[in-house]
Give the backbone structure.
Amino acid sequence: MRPVEQQGVEEMTLYREEFPLILEELLALPRSEPHLAEGAALLPACVLPFLLEPQRAIWIVPTAEFQLHHYGVEHGQKMR
């Protein structure tokens, strides 16, 4: 297993590499109607430069309690 810090860096790198592909698909949609997009690769730093109205963007992030409850214990083993 890779250290958690390394996993985090690799995930963020992957999301930044994936973002241009998502952006291409979003820009191909009709601009006459609103759209809802979701996904881990839609990082605020990547998305904000493309928003006409940044105040209308929402990022939903799980609380620490939610993460611990849902991801902290699996098969009797605690996460490190």
Remarks:
- Residues 4-27 form the longest helix (24 residues).
- Residues 4-78 form one domain.
- The first strand starts at residue 73 and ends at 74.
